[in-house]
Specification:
Order of helices and strands: HEEHEEEEHHE
Structural class: alpha+beta
Largest sheet: 5 strands, antiparallel
Oligomer: single chain
Number of domains: 1
Length: 151
């Protein structure tokens, strides 16, 4: 009976600890976000920053059609960003962390300014935190964007 109990205990411990070992393979990297130190999965964080940069470059390059589906590793929420050109301007749709939707029609100048800010933030760790002041000026402006709270 002791052999059976010991075997069952080993099996249960093996099943419980397996997800911990699977997570041990994830490379964590230090990031400072809003002056707070965090250790986040490097691959996921790099993908998030690359997606922000991709959209920023699309906006700067005259509203080149582009799309990014990214997950913010800090809050573990998904965002979708879309850029497309239309006859009346540059369309920018941003479903931010599944909480807010920004549907924007940007002038060439506003698209370029927003793109430059996204690129700038993607080169820092602040892209994982709140929107920057210059981004807010465009995204929160009724002149350019309609904002919808999703949840």
């Amino acid at each position: 009976m002791r052999f059976f109990s010991a075997g069952l205990l080993m099996l249960l411990l093996g099943l419980v600890s397996q997800p911990l070992f699977a997570q041990a393979d994830v490379e964590l990297a230090p990031y400072k976000i809003n002056k707070i130190d965090h250790h986040l999965p490097k691959v996921v964080t790099d993908e998030y920053l690359s997606g922000i940069r991709l959209i920023g470059e699309a906006l700067v390059k005259g509203c080149k059609a582009s799309r990014a589906d990214i997950t913010n590793p800090l809050v573990r929420r998904q965002s979708q960003l879309r850029v497309s050109k239309s006859k009346t301007g540059c369309r920018f749709n941003y479903q931010r962390e599944m909480l807010w939707q920004y549907q924007c029609l940007l002038s060439e100048g506003a698209a370029k300014r927003l793109g430059q800010e996204l690129i700038k933030r993607s080169n820092s760790h602040d892209a994982l935190g709140d929107l920057g002041e210059k981004e807010q000026e465009i995204l929160f402006s009724a002149r350019y964007c309609d904002i919808t709270k999703l949840n």
